[in-house]
Structure formats: structure tokens, C-alpha cells
């Protein structure tokens, strides 16, 4: 999985982080308002630069997944069907899988955990962070802002990340801008719930049973 670099703005510490969270919350509200008026189908071009990629870049099929850190269906998908699909098709060289962390605005603490996931990704641990955060979702889902941020820091420590760099990254407004770009892409592509995943551009929604989910991939495989 390629590591994305994140530029540092110097806005370290709790105040900088709260500012980034406040900005992301406002941007989420504005994007939600705009999408209520018009949500035309759009392109997924740019998913490579905004998402986190696993698999052979020359694989015959590309899956683009939008996941919300606080969504219960996303947690189920990540821990069950998605894991099995990746084991079979990504590890088997048939699928390139791109995941984008999407703040839907529906669930609490999604913005805080999204920033944290992106910053774990900048250190090469995006997938590991998702696994830990989804497994312990009940600990932070309804927590206060401060408690949710503390849980995210604890996950970073569990993964043995550079915690100072992690905190600096979370306070960087460029990371909130990246999250907004994902939100805009999701809405332009017609995403209305999570998880939504596109198989070579064909939209599939929900934490589907494995057998049903497999059919959307196998039907597109050559031969």
C-alpha cells in the first residue's frame, strides 16, 4: 500500500486539532446542503490520489469503496465480507481496491476518526487503523469530542505510530481539505449511504453477504 505524504502546517496540539475538526464539520454541513439540491452522477477520477490502494495496479478490476468510520454497516463490511473479498480477489491479483474515508454527516465522531485514519495512512497504517477503530467502535462512537480524539491517539500508540507526527497531521487543515474532496467526489458519484463500492464504475451499496457480493466481482472478471 503506498504511503501518502501529508504536509505539515505547524498547527500542532489540541487547539489546532479542534480547529481542523470545526472546519471539517462546517465543510461537511455545506457539502450536505449542496448535495440536497443536486447530486448528479460524477466521475471517480482522482480516487487514486485521494484514496488508499491495495493490490496489483494492473489488476483487471478496480473497486472504489467509500466507508464512514462511524457507520455500523461499514464496520460489519470491513470485518466480514470486505475482508474475505480482499483475501480472495486482491491478494489473488484480480482486483485493485481503493478505499476512501467519507464523512457522511450522519454518525457522531466520524470527522475526528476520519482525520485520524488519514494520518495513520500517512505513516503506512491506514488499513491497520481501520481494523482497530472498527473493532473498538463502541468505545468512541458516542464519546465526547475530547474522548474520541483520545481514543484515536490510543489507536496510534497501539499501532506504534510516530505520535507527535500523528498529532501534527491531525491538526493540519490540508487533511480536512482532503476529507472534503472525498465528500465532494462521493456526492458527485451518487453515494447516498455507506458502505458504497463501485466495481469498475458499477455501484454496489451495503454490507452484503459474501456470496452475493462476490457475484458483482466475478461477473466482471475476464474469461
Q: Cα-atom Rg, whole angstroms? A: 17 Å
Order of helices and strands: HHEEHHEHHHHHHEEH
Q: Which sheet architecture does the biggest sheet show? A: 5 strands, mixed
Number of domains: 1
CATH topology: Glutaredoxin
List how many beta strands DSSP finds.
Answer: 5
Oligomer: single chain
Mean pLDDT: 84
CATH class identity: Alpha Beta
What spatial order of strands do you see in the largest sheet? 1-3-2-4-5
Strand content: 5-15%
Distance between the termini: 28 Å
In which range does the helix fraction lie? 40-55%
Overall 3D shape: globular
SS element count, helices = 11
Looking at CATH, the homologous superfamily is Glutaredoxin
The class by helix and strand makeup works out as alpha+beta
Uncertain segments are: 1-15, 22-41
What does the secondary structure layout of this molecule look like, with pairings?
Elements: H1 13-37, H2 47-50, E1 52-54, E2 61-67, H3 72-79, H4 81-90, E3 95-101, H5 110-121, H6 126-135, H7 137-140, H8 145-158, H9 163-170, H10 173-188, E4 196-199, E5 202-205, H11 210-218
Parallel strand pairs: 2-3
Antiparallel strand pairs: 1-3, 2-4, 4-5
Helix pairs in contact: 1-10, 3-6, 4-11, 5-6, 5-8, 5-9
